[in-house]
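Task card 7
Instruction: Convert sequence to structure tokens.
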Amino acid sequence: MDDQNFPRTGFVRLSSILAPAGPIPVCRSTWWQGVKDGRFPKPQKLGPRTTVWKAEEIRALFEGPAHG
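Output:
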């Protein structure tokens, strides 16, 4: 999934966020450390084995303020 195909709204799973399928080029352990440190958005639990993030928050990470 490239940046243009990343959803603008809704929820996304970690597999859609991290490379190679997603736009964020970090490994799982780096991602979870970043969540813990506050560098990356906090997830939401939809169920006992389902963790998601808001697509808008993830998009803001890789678009940044320069993309408006």
